[in-house]
Amino acid sequence: MELDYKRPLAGMTLEELQRTVLGLGMSKFVAKQLADWIYNKRVTTFDEMVNISKANREKLAAQYAVGLSAPVDAQTSEDGTVKYLFDVDEGKKIETVMIPEDDRMTLCISSQKGCRMNCYFCMTGRQGYHGNLTACQIINQVLSVPEAADITNVVFMGMGEPLDNIEEVMKVIEIMTAPWGFAWSPKRITVSTVGVKPALQQLVESTQVHIAVSVHNAVHEERLSMMPLEKIYPIKEVLQMLSDYDFAHQRRLSIEYIMWQWFNDDIKHAEALRGIIPNEHVRVNLIRYHMIPDIAKLRTSSDERMTQFRDYLNSRGITCTIRRSRGEDISAACGMLAGKVKGTQAAKPQPTRTKR
Is domain 8-65 given the CATH code 1.10.10.10 in the classification? Predict the structure, then answer.
């Protein structure tokens, strides 16, 4: 029996919506009406689009779906963080995290089903790669959480490597920043990457969103043992490429640095990190390691060593802060998202500490 699949309109850019309505014999302006209903009014059915004629709504419903769907589960942390579970195609699930704090409401969204970056310390990477999310599946996370109207910031720091899905991520950024979409300032959006250099260059040149680069170790051999992409795109070269762009004003470039005890948390590693930072406008965020199953050998650094690392960089003119962990008790913190995907886990390389 053939499934009655209808392509979703959510996730389409204005240009795509225009092509869609023209293909159905409708006036081009219907595309802007659709964009308003989906991205601003956030309706889930065509019947709610009352300024579109009934005949046109019926044409749309015959071949298309709005495409928005609510999360299927939610867990709330003792610190107020909420982790949402979304169904995506082929029985896979993804997770999205809402982080409330003072006057900010930050949504951490996923861009892939799993991840193929294979980072040793990341729960998402350990489950393997199961495909890219569509622009619909990405923007649905922003539109369909209960707190959608209160979101102040979106960070692409959930499941997956955003720049490994650059085309769909770029469409979502367009939807969020275009006048016909959310009309957000790009400064409300941060895209995180482990350093997919060609796609990162495209992102930096085509948008004004903030950039966060996951470094975690500035020593080539050590980073390679934890993060296989280092072999293709050494982090020193990635940051050197970023030095050609302006991050001195409103746009922000930050470095994410998970700290492991006795592995990357001494002053020599702080010196190595300082040596690859392109300029004084870069900010460094130190992150506590959040333990995941089957990696007993990794431990987070002590508060004392993290403070020493931070103070060393600050004393050398590099703005460095220790990030507060959120949602660890519900496996919603950095590196812990798994989407409840079951299956065998591939063997991982072991981290290597070089002599310095």
Answer: no
